Automatic annotation (TrEMBL):
Name the record gives this protein: Signal recognition particle protein
PROSITE patterns from the UniProt entry: SRP54 (PS00300)
Subunit structure: Part of the signal recognition particle protein translocation system, which is composed of SRP and FtsY.
Name of encoding gene: ffh
Residue positions binding GTP: 104-111, 185-189, 243-246
Keywords: Cytoplasm, GTP-binding, Hydrolase, Nucleotide-binding, Ribonucleoprotein, RNA-binding, Signal recognition particle
Organism whose genome encodes this protein: Spirochaeta isovalerica
Any one annotated GO CC term: signal recognition particle
Catalytic activity: GTP + H2O = GDP + phosphate + H(+)
Similarity comment: family membership: Belongs to the GTP-binding SRP family. SRP54 subfamily.
Length: 436
């Protein structure tokens, strides 16, 4: 899915003009990619409709950079799907015992998640205890004990087949020993099974957990979503730990879970080791799925830096040829915020398309900036007044030479000439508008 979406992202990056048809085509490709990733069909439909609705709006098609706006919309819709914002555990204060109940099918990663969670909470300064309530699989208690030892967390165990009894006794002991969190590992089955459900409901009633987290295997895709639905109906869950996220190239479960079950993903398992548990950040996962960590921040920067009004303002100045060195300097500074000299040059009127990739010299640009900074406001607003004495002063002030100052002024003069030509040429003007 990531490869596919990265392709789409790339098609749109830096595109200055897109049409409704472009958007529909891209959305269709995204639809196919999502279905391939085993995202629930209902979720895909909703995603597609919302994206098309937002992306074909006037302000997108007419914006400074519609391609980037489109990517941003896709990204935002994806963040919505994934759950909007980070949902942390809801635990009580350290003076009482908070209970976290883990449930899910066999092999989903419950026992591993119990240890991972304990290690994490311990690191955060809480004082957790583990309870081994999977009494169905012979080796399960031992597995948790080994993990507990490894992370230095006490594991409560009992020789019995009664999970409710173990859970109750564990909670008693946790209170007595002043632990502040009890994490209960329970037995799963190979598939949804009434015995299992009954046992979990009984444990749940016995310990009244603050969090009942479903541990679900991301690799099972839509199946994980069905399982979450079933567990929620029977036991009521408060959230999900999505395991084996490291092996799930498709992201389908993550994308469908929230909208189908209404329950947030709270953590993801990203490996077999105890430290391989991460909080689930919808925005980061959306970037990961879109394969565009950088693109998103670039879009945000672009939106923050060059708003439509600023672009229009600049356009007006260009057309009326009142563009000054002051504006020129502002362009440098705005573009520096975006971190790309390449796009800076592309935005400077008359320079777009004239300079190839290798031609830009960041150092030279810094020197030009220094020169303009050494000018008075009056000089910046009217470069014609800058005669030889002023040039000498500016060169000294900026640590450059008189010939460099003269070169910049000459270059700027030429640029304004180009602008005047543009101002008289409707066709060129249109070209320029689309460049912006
Ligand atoms: P349980 O039956 O639900 O208790 O599942 P386990 O905790 O015993 O885990 C089953 C298998 O999945 C084990 O081999 C774990 O090492 C593995 N596992 C659990 N979580 C993850 C994860 O986030 N990533 C990967 N790659 N493997 C995991
Ligand atoms: Mg287990």
């Amino acid at each position: 899915i990531t490869d596919k979406l990265t392709d789409i992202t790339r098609q749109f990056t830096g595109k200055n003009r897109i049409t409704e048809k472009n958007i529909e085509d891209a959305v269709n490709e995204i639809k196919v990619a999502l279905l391939d990733a085993d995202v629930n069909l209902r979720v895909v439909r909703r995603f597609v409709n919302r994206t098309i609705k937002d992306a074909t709006g006037e302000d997108v098609l007419r914006s400074v950079d519609p391609g980037q706006m489109f990517i941003k919309i896709v990204y935002d819709k994806m963040v919505d799907l994934l759950g909007d914002s980070r949902q942390d555990l809801e635990l009580k204060g350290p003076d009482t015992v908070s209970v976290i109940l883990l449930l899910g099918l066999q092999g989903a990663g419950k026992t591993t998640a119990a240890a991972k969670l304990a290690a994490r909470l311990k690191k955060e300064g809480r004082n957790p205890m583990l309870a081994a309530c999977d009494l169905v699989r012979p080796a399960a208690v031992e597995q948790l004990s080994v993990l507990g030892e490894q992370i230095g967390v006490e594991v409560y165990r009992e020789e019995t087949k009664n999970a409710v009894k173990v859970a109750k006794n564990a909670l008693k002991l946790a209170k007595k020993k002043q632990y502040d969190t009890l994490i209960i590992d329970t037995a799963g089955r190979l598939q949804i099974d009434q015995d299992m459900m009954k046992e979990i409901v009984d444990v749940r009633e016995a310990v009244n957990p603050d969090e009942a987290l479903l541990v679900a295997d991301a690799m099972t895709g839509q199946n994980a979503v069905e399982i979450a639905k079933a567990f929620d109906e029977e036991v009521t869950i408060s959230g999900v730990i999505l395991t084996k996220f490291d092996s799930d190239a498709r992201g389908g479960a993550a994308l469908s879970l929230k909208s189908i079950t209404g329950k947030p993903i709270k953590f993801i398992g990203v490996g077999e080791k105890v430290e391989d548990l991460e909080p689930f950040y919808p925005d980061r996962i959306a970037s990961r799925i879109l394969g565009m960590g950088d693109v998103v921040s670039l879009v945000e920067k672009a939106q923050g830096v060059a708003t439509q009004e600023e672009a229009e303002e600049l356009q007006k100045k260009i057309i009326s040829a009142t563009f000054t060195l002051e504006d020129y300097l502002k362009q440098f500074q705005q573009m520096r915020k975006m971190g790309s000299v390449q796009s800076l040059v592309a935005m400077i009127p008359g320079m777009a398309g004239k300079i190839g990739d290798g031609d830009i010299d960041e150092k030279a640009i810094k020197r030009e900036e220094a020169i303009i900074l050494s000018m008075t406001l009056q000089e910046r607003r009217n470069h014609r007044i800058i005669g030889p004495p002023r040039r000498k002063r500016i060169a000294a002030g900026s640590g450059t030479t008189v010939s460099e100052v003269s070169r910049l002024i000459k270059k700027f003069d030429k640029m304004r000439l180009t602008m005047k030509k543009i101002a008289k040429n409707k066709k060129l003007q249109n070209q320029l508008m689309t460049q912006m």
